Amino acid sequence: MVEKSLPREILFGGETITNKEINQALDNYFSTIDEKDLTPKNQKDLRDWFVKNYKRLIAGEKKRREVKREPIEISTEFQDKALTSALTELKKLTESTVKEGQENLTPELFSRYGAQQEFRKKMTEIQGSENVVVFVTFDLDNFKKINDSFTHEKGDELLKEVAKNLEATLSIAKGDTGIRFSGDEYGMFLTIPQNKLADVKNVLARMVTNIEQSSKRPDGDKQTLSVGFSIVTPERIGEKDLFKNSREAADKAGEISKLIRTKNLLEEKADTKSSDRIISSDETETYFEKTEKEKLSYIRQVMRPMQEVLRDKSEQEIVAMALQCYEKIAEKK
């Protein structure tokens, strides 16, 4: 990607920066990006992000001046500095978006960057309403076995199939959103009325079952999912790092789902229904007792390197060996 230098008057000029000059700077920058690497929607989203970021920098400086009782008028030097800073961040974000697009196996779903934009849109839509956004994350259980035992091409085929099945499951009329964050990590945004919160698990169970039943693994095993979700209410609009915090809450709930699966393996229970272990972020700290959670977390952690080496062993055999490791350590304590 060859980048043209930006006009000197935009970066270092002493005159007042106008919208025309800002647009000129953006046009000049985007002209350096291959059209096939950046869709019109991507470019619009990035432009919108840039304008918001630039305005935020200016507003922050005005606020600082108010607090220090300095003249409110923003100097052209600071405007230049803010513009340069915003353009630098825009470049990083654009490169990330282009990279995601080039590596994207699942164009029917939002990427990680697109998901952030869509999340902000969803939160704006529910402002002042009785609705909430359900932030769902899930990943594919035992997916690594596909890449290790077959090929990465087979793994990619499964990822594409899951994406198509997720898209087919979503209720487009309600504006539900499908996401692929990275690797085998997927997500959804569902908008539902607050008085229907009790039905969230049932709704997700139906969706997860559809995805699960329609996604075929090359090893013939049933593809199960570990699912977690968090509820985001309109009152949280404006909260710092809301997207990040909401996703982390859903991911932590998903970790509990994985521990339930580990427990099922230990107890030799058939883990055939992902819908039985859809976990809310409200359950994260209370689902397991502390000692049991530590035990299951240790076993799950030990299983990973074992699976790398002992590829001919089943999960049931691996979990039994991991349990032995845990018991030996517990004895020493």
TrEMBL record:
Identification of the protein by name: GGDEF domain-containing protein
Species name: Candidatus Magasanikbacteria bacterium CG10_big_fil_rev_8_21_14_0_10_36_16
CDD domains found in the cross-reference section: GGDEF
Positions of the GGDEF domain: 131-263
Superkingdom of the source species: Bacteria
InterPro entries: Biofilm_reg_signaling (IPR052155), GGDEF_dom (IPR000160), Nucleotide_cyclase (IPR029787), Rev_trsase/Diguanyl_cyclase (IPR043128)
Gene3D superfamilies (UniProt xref): 3.30.70.270
